[in-house]
Structure formats: C-alpha cells, structure tokens
Amino acid sequence: MRMFLRNITEIKIGLLGVLIIMNIVLTTLLINGIKNLNANTNEECENAPLFIEHPNAIDKWELFKVALKWQESKCKPEVGSDNAIGLYAITPIYVKECNNILGYEHFTLEDRYDSLKSESMFEVFQSQHNPKYSIERAIKLHNPTAESWYRNQVMDKYNLLKYFYSQFLGYRVID
Fold it and tell me: What per-residue confidence (pLDDT) applies to 72?
C-alpha cells in the first residue's frame, strides 16, 4: 500500500511539473504572439520569433530566454527581491547600461515590471555585449557574480524545456 501511495505521489508531482511547463510555454507563446500582433513595420515582422513563422520549430535563443525568466522570476513580471525586479530580475545598473547603449534615457526603473520592456532591455543588453547570442556568455553576463549552480539551474531548465518542446509538442529546436 505504501508503494502504491508513493507512486501516486510521484505521478502527481510529475503532472504538476508538466502543468507548470505548459503554463510557461503558453505564456511565452501568448507574449510573443502579442508582440507580433502589435508589429507596425515589415522589419518587426521579419524579426518575429521563429516558432511563429515555422510552426514545428523553435529558436534555441527564445527557449533559453524562457528558461532564464523561469530561473529569475518563475515568469512573473511582478516578482522582485532587493533591487532585482521583473521577469529577468533586472537591476538599476542593468537599466542604466541599456540606456547607455541606446545613447538616451529610453528605459526607466518602472519598466522592469513591464514584460515587453523587460524583454527589450534584455535584448538590447545582449545584442551589445553578446552579439553571437552565446547561451553560456548570456548566463555569465546576466548574473556575473553567480557561481556554477546558477548556470546549472538555468541549463537544467533550458534542457527540460527543450525536451518538452521536442517530445510533447513535436518541435525542432533550431540554432
């Protein structure tokens, strides 16, 4: 009987994990879909995420961003601790660097709570300091003082999402 109850508990935990991943995936698809609906120029449409253009594929960078948001905030834009706030746990120094890159005060500290602006800040920062979009470099740049456990947790989430997309949704992860 104990073995039966233990197996039931493991199944419940496994199903809960799948539901959490599905929630993250659907939220990401929805956010990226909204960005595409709001696109005003052909250039914005051309830069749309690959899984919109190719329904059976997802770009590894997009998948990595979901894993990083999952690590930093459980994909909740209202989350914050100390001075790191939002989906990507963006700090005031990060906001300042994004504005320096752009050459003018485009982002405010309040923008860290906004999902789309938080995403934009992450892209501005990475495009300047990581133009080849290396996942390893992105992890180090995003949290330079973190130890190896941080990288391992982000990569575990990335690999879990990659597995989920390929095995359950039939997607192909592309470079």
Answer: 95
